[in-house]
Give the backbone structure.
Amino acid sequence: MSAVLANLPAFLEGFRMTLVLLAVSGGGALVLGTIVAVMRVSPVATLRWLATGYTELFRNTPLTLVFAFFVFVVPTLGVRVDFIWLALVSLTLYTSPFVAEAIRSGINGVPVGQAEAARSIGLGFGQTLGLVILPQALRMSVPPLINVLIALTKNTSVAGGFFIVELVATGRQLANANGNAVIPILLAVAAFYLVITITLGLVAGRVESKVRVLR
Amino acid sequence: MTSVLFDAPGPKARRASLIASIVSAVALIALFGWIIATLAAPRTGPGGVTLPGAFDPSRWDIFLDRAVWRTIWGGVLGTLRAAGLAAVLAIIIGVILSLFRSSRTRWITVPVAIVLEFLRGVPVLLMMLFILLVLSTGQYWAVVWALAVYNGAIIGEALRAGLDSLPRGQREAGLSIGLSPLATRMRIEYPQAVRQMTPIIVAQLVVLLKDTSLGYIVGYSEVLRVMMNNLSSFYGNRYLFSLFFVCLGIYLAINFIVSAIARFLSKRLA
């Protein structure tokens, strides 16, 4: 326990990095995923195929491989940026198809009558989607979206294997430095993750009961 | 495809969407063309060394060597060995956990619920590190047990949801013909719950297969480590790009095969 308390600043620094990864790539994935979901249901065939191909490609690729591409291969192509940016891009791209699938299942869950009613009062495609379908679909997507964010929280740990010092990398360094206190240190790392994931789970429950569409 | 969002398009709308399709296709082809042209161009590195373009034969010639493919095959076997054993163990752990979780005694369900919540809220990578550093089992068993326990927890929750969604009459009928509670669970309820949850369980097994690549970080020689670390250090950075592409192809092939088997199975079970 004393090893944990003595190294609390290091833990907090790692925790901060995990939160940064979660917040930035989570936000990016929400934006990108919404765009992909809209493309996936658009009347333009090319965009539909592109979105489907993108989703299939990233859902069948391990996150570690995405990281390997951005951290090892991209720098050999002459791109020189900080590793944190490469990590954020990897996490965003990997998470966005899951966001897109969550939103798409929400769109498919909106009853047909809603769109028919929207069209029958003269709304066009953009208006039907933006004013009637998406507001309902997004609400129905909230619980699966929070599950995607919980998965993302755990996935940020992969960045720890690629030169980013977040919680797991911090835990690994501290465990190597304090060979007699490996178990408390790793349990402390687990506790920090549980702070995020359990909070998100509770938020999911609250939000779900708040924004549910009453029919 | 949803037809929820728009009517069957008329001639004008069809023309508009065809034009939009063509325009975006041209834009996409231009983008891909630009990417390919950029990759194909020779590049001078920071050390003043000029590398030929990414599609130059001199950056792909290692794949003519049988020994390279034998090494890659060793990596693929490493991935499949870890994934296969972990999948079997995960299903066993999942069944046991769901059995405890749906027990009638609170003394059993509450601790099991806490354990499940803990296992599902913590990254697999952390579990691998824990097993590796605390139990000192070696990399293979660290990968296998971490994946088995983590995915077992998720499969356990899925099975419990499947059990909960069964009509109560199933259990009552089992008990009323004189089966013991355990026999009712195993012979009446489980077969139905498993059948209902097959798609979720199979999706989780694909996730498990993908997660074996975390072995890369803890030093287990699976396909990603063999290709992106061992082979690329042996042959040099110039092959990094081609090795990545072959590795991506291998993962996509394995996952599509597993998904196809899953679709076939769920059709057979339905």
The beta strands of chain B are 43-44, 50-51. The CA atoms of residues 119 and 150 of chain B lie 6 Å apart. Chain B has a mean pLDDT of 86. DSSP finds ten helices and two strands in chain B.
